[in-house]
Automatic annotation (TrEMBL):
It comes from the Bacteria. Pfam families: NUDIX (PF00293), WHD_NrtR (PF21906). Residues 22-154 form the Nudix hydrolase domain. Coiled coil: none annotated. PANTHER family: ADP-RIBOSE PYROPHOSPHATASE (PTHR43736), SLR1690 PROTEIN (PTHR43736:SF4). InterPro entries: NUDIX_hydrolase-like_dom_sf, NUDIX_hydrolase_dom, WH-like_DNA-bd_sf, WH_DNA-bd_sf, WHD_NrtR. This is Nudix hydrolase domain-containing protein. One of its GO terms (molecular function) is catalytic activity.
Length: 251
């Protein structure tokens, strides 16, 4: 058939004339608890890959999701009951091998959420989910290609931590700089230069003094609050590791 206008063409267009791939959003949901970086996994209750651990996620809803970010926020809310202060797309992967049901595309996101807030809001749910340390999760036999997806998300989180204020999203309203540095170190898996870290935070205006203190051990420590509009602030240089262990002793 020959069409004389775009309107006429679209009026006769049939989506079912073409094969379409499966399209999902998968999420690596990170948090910090018990001094370790944790990632939330869900055990699949249906085929395919029944019984295996997987990243939380689901299919794009063509009727309700205006874009992929909307799908990601919807799935995060469904799986955790909360909104993340930071959500970022890592990569989009598609091929004929990753899902036995057929040609499949997934948009991979990562989120960083408050562990205590998640525990409170999801304590009555029955879905089988579990927090694993990142080392434990990377050793699991995960469903589909989710081990690859988790590794990609973990690497992105580490890179963002080296040059942004993202870990500050996990802090309470008031905190010490030592507490903030500890969160950075847990995510990165190594220690940071103490003086450089504090100077970087204060010179960038990422934190501000509150005039309040709390006792840490037997010494008073200054309390700070996060001072910027969002957590995607970029430092001009990456955070530094200490030149030797004695330079980074914490007080």
């Amino acid at each position: 058939m020959t069409y004389t206008s775009e309107q006429e063409y679209l009026a006769h267009y049939q989506k079912t004339d073409y094969d379409t791939p499966l399209f999902t959003v998968d999420m690596a949901i990170f948090s910090v608890a018990k001094g370790q970086l944790q990632v939330l996994m869900i055990q699949r209750s249906n085929f395919p890959e029944k019984g295996k651990w997987a990243l939380p996620g689901g299919f794009v809803d063509l009727k309700t999701d205006p874009d992929l970010m909307a799908t990601a926020h919807r799935k995060l809310l469904e799986k955790t009951g909360i909104h993340s202060p930071y959500l970022e797309q890592v990569e989009t992967i598609g091929n004929q091998y990753r899902d036995p049901r057929g040609w499949s595309i997934t948009a991979l996101y990562f989120a960083l959420i408050d562990f205590d807030q998640f525990e409170i809001q999801t304590s009555t749910t029955t879905e089988h989910r579990q927090w694993f340390t990142i080392d434990q999760a990377l050793q699991l036999d995960l469903a589909f290609d989710h081990q690859q997806l988790l590794q990609l998300a973990f690497e992105r989180l580490g890179n963002k931590t080296r040059y942004t204020a993202l870990p500050a999203s996990l802090m309470p309203e008031l905190f010490t700089l030592t507490e903030l540095q500890t969160i950075y170190e847990i995510i990165l898996g190594h220690r940071l230069e103490k003086k450089s870290f504090r100077r970087r935070m204060q010179e960038a205006g990422a934190v501000e003094e509150t005039g309040q203190q709390k006792i840490v051990g037997k010494r008073p420590a200054q309390l700070f609050r996060y001072a910027l509009q969002d957590y995607n602030f970029t430092f001009p240089r990456m955070l530094e590791t200490p030149r030797n262990s004695t330079e980074n002793e914490k007080s």
